[in-house]
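Lecture 7, part 2: worked example. A protein chain together with GLP.
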Amino acid sequence: MQVVIAGSSAEVGRIAAAKVSQVIRKRADAVVGLATGSSPLSIYAQLSHQVREERLDCSSVRAFALDEYVGLPVGHPQSYRSVLERDVVEPLRLKRSNVHVPDGTAADVVSACAAFEQRLRDLGPVDIQILGIGRNGHIGFNEPTSSFASRTRIKTLAPKTRADNARFFSSPDEVPTHCLTQGLANILEATRLLLVAQGEKKADAVAKMVEGPLSSMCPASALQLHADVTVVIDDAAACKLTLSDYYRYTYQNLPEWQRFDAGPPPGGSSERGPGGASGTS
Ligand code: GLP
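Predicted complex, written out as structure tokens:
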């Protein structure tokens, strides 16, 4: 697992976006796994900047959402389909028909999950899966005690997750109680995983994910089982890591050919690698 500790939240987005665009530049029709929530927004903003400047072409990119709320009507502004259209499809100029989201409006959720799994099998594997992390260590909507073998299915949202996501709704009661989510096994099947986290409120979950025991009590610890994981976090999210000095040291001494975060941020000073971010293992 490569742990990159960035000096700021904006720097998290810049470094993580460099990883995603590297994949898309190598394969124009790359399959990208999309996360919602606030954590990846800076990645999408950076990618959209590159698209606007015609340094990146996402018109052939295929994409899969990690999850979707159950029961929100089609077009609800907080359904993940709507959120992804606003935050990703339009700014990155993806084709809407290339973006696949579990159908949270389906009367038959079992069939909806099976159809989504089939599409993942047909178009996958996902080349790079973008992930955030919940305060309770969830990834996607795989709440604590989710099986490491789980696949796309309906889940009940933890009260803590509903409370955290209430900020996106006009009242806490409006947050759906259920969701459809890719399982931990689906996530582990992606070729590369890229997780971003910012802020001290994520520090406990990040420490358990990176350095804690492999446990379904912290679903994100499943990332320890994957051979190609990059975790990009800011100083605040890194503050509970025991080996943060080691991650910084390792990143500062990365061989040039292993670097993916080339180039200065648009309009900013060059903080490439050793200057701007640190840490790997
Ligand atoms: C949400 C999403 C996750 C996301 C997480 C953290 O509920 N289902 O994919 O990573 O919770 O959200 P945020 O980035 O807003 O903190």
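Confidence is low (pLDDT under 50) at residues 264-276. The pocket of GLP is lined by residues 35-39, 66-67, 132-134, 140-141, 161, 165 (CB under 6 Å). Keep this in mind for problem set question 3.
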